[in-house]
Design brief:
Blueprint: H1 2-17, E1 32-36, H2 40-48, H3 66-82, E2 84-85, H4 88-92, E3 104-105, H5 107-120, E4 128-134, E5 140-148, E6 151-156, E7 159-164, E8 171-177, E9 180-187, H6 193-197
Parallel strand pairs: 2-3
Antiparallel strand pairs: 1-9, 4-5, 4-8, 5-6, 6-7, 8-9
Helix pairs in contact: 3-5
Length: about 200
């Protein structure tokens, strides 16, 4: 009987000493919330490209097959190596201007070009979502989220590696709605990621 009691006590100590993890952390897909403000740069982009900012046919997330992985890896690497990083101020003389880059662009421009190229290659619009994040230094940044049945993957101009969203060092703020490319929604579990990603 004493031995059984000892095992129960040890089990209780192990359970109490195990660190608690936030329930929302390390989930393969982002949890989105309510409609939120559209970034001003995207609003302006939609005025110029209205056909790219309306309701979309929301399908089930694409499956991450070997073919899909090859495609997104090729596009991510091609854009990262072809486009030269530059600020909107340097290129257009304004602080914020979202556009398709020709030779140079900032983070939003990299993501927009990847999005367009992947749509042209058959990835559904509802699975390619412009996303606003915060870097560990607090600076704002934009990436492209690919929704898949296996989770949300990030295409980033700061990295040639494609990772699940929670494996990146960012805090996630908001992204395009999958049902409407002109609407944006909050990312409810996005702020837990930064802590987990840095461990």
């Amino acid at each position: 009987m004493r031995i059984k009691g000892l095992f129960v006590a040890l089990a209780a100590i192990i359970v109490m000493s195990t660190p608690a993890m936030p329930a929302t952390q390390n989930t393969p897909s982002m949890v989105v919330g309510d409609v939120t403000s559209q970034p001003i740069g995207h609003y302006d982009f939609c005025q110029r490209y209205s056909n790219e900012c309306g309701p979309t046919r929301e399908l089930m997330p694409v499956s991450m097959t070997p073919e899909t992985w090859t495609l997104i890896s090729q596009v991510n690497l091609y854009v990262n190596k072809t486009i030269t990083p530059a600020t909107d101020q340097d290129i257009y003389g304004v602080e914020e201007y979202w556009a398709y880059p020709v030779t140079a662009g900032d983070c939003e421009d990299f993501a927009l070009l990847k999005r367009r190229m992947l749509i042209q290659r058959g990835i559904p619009t509802s699975d390619l979502l412009m996303t606003v994040v915060r870097k560990p230094d607090g600076e704002g940044h934009a990436v492209l989220t690919l929704r898949t049945a296996q989770g949300d993957y990030i295409l980033d101009n700061l990295s040639d590696d494609i990772k699940l969203w929670y494996q990146t060092p960012y805090s996630y703020i908001k992204r395009q709605a999958s049902y409407n490319a002109g609407r944006w929604v909050t990312i409810e579990n996005g702020r837990d990621v930064l802590v987990g990603a840095l461990k």
